[in-house]
Design goal:
By secondary structure, this protein is mainly α. The protein is built from eleven helices and no strands. The radius of gyration is 17 Å and the shape is globular.
């Protein structure tokens, strides 16, 4: 399961099947405690972030970063407090990640419609701050902070290069900040780092595959398969903890 999750993260960072990284942590949560699944994926995501950001180095929008990062930090703090409060209640954690998975599965399915509906309607500063905080929270819990930030950034009128560069750098910084609460919560164990060392080459393989697939294939059917996996995973996590 870890091999599949890490490879999908790499493929996503390689530019193929946008958003397929959403499924990585929920997949691992099927076979691992939620905290362990999140802790295992964080260093993997950082490796993938560094690989992605280097292609857009120096290309980011400073006002957007200055606005979103404080909001995301607040969300990270709330997410960390959530982990602390329910660290011994695996049922609540799996139920939460299952619900988030279903919500973002719906997002994945209706992404074009949602973005089309909000396009041209710039969120107020309050809504923007809320979206940034939501991104920090969901990123801390399940590493799925992309959709709220995408909704906010859609109407920033940035060029494609600046949009992608800002998005990638934002999550590199967010994931780096998350190392602090993860360390304080005792989630960054030596055992996890050994597993990360074993899995790290798959990130490079996944990015290479993503680049190759992006230039040769339409990602429509790939995204449909990922959507089915995402929804089934969310249902399994929710039903499994509700019974």
């Amino acid at each position: 399961m870890a091999i599949i999750a890490v490879t999908l993260v790499g493929i996503s960072k390689g530019g193929f099947g946008g958003g397929v990284g959403l499924v990585a942590t929920p997949l691992l949560a099927l076979v691992l405690p939620v905290a362990d699944a999140a802790a295992l994926m964080l260093p993997i995501l950082l490796i993938a972030d560094v690989l992605s950001v280097r292609n857009y180095w120096g290309q980011f929008d400073r006002p957007t970063m200055r606005f979103l990062l404080p909001a995301a930090i607040l969300g990270i703090i709330i997410g960390s407090l959530f982990f602390t409060a329910f660290s011994t209640n695996e049922r609540i954690l799996k139920l939460t990640i299952g619900i988030l998975t279903l919500i973002f599965g719906i997002w994945f399915a209706a992404k074009e419609w949602i973005l089309g509906a909000v396009e041209g309607k710039r969120p107020s500063n309050y809504i923007g701050f809320l979206l940034g905080s939501l991104s920090g929270f969901t990123s801390t819990i399940a590493h799925v902070g992309g959709p709220p930030v995408t909704i906010y950034m859609l109407n920033t009128k940035l060029s494609k290069q600046l949009f992608i560069g800002t998005f990638l750098l934002f999550f590199l910084i967010v994931n780096t900040i998350k190392l602090i609460p993860y360390a304080l919560l005792g989630l960054l164990t030596v055992g996890n780092f050994l597993v990360v060392l074993i899995l790290a080459p798959l990130v490079f393989l996944g990015v290479w595959l993503g680049v190759k697939l992006n230039g040769r294939f339409n990602d429509l059917w790939f995204n449909r398969v990922i959507l089915i996996i995402l929804l089934l995973t969310g249902i399994q996590l929710v039903i499994g903890e509700s019974l």
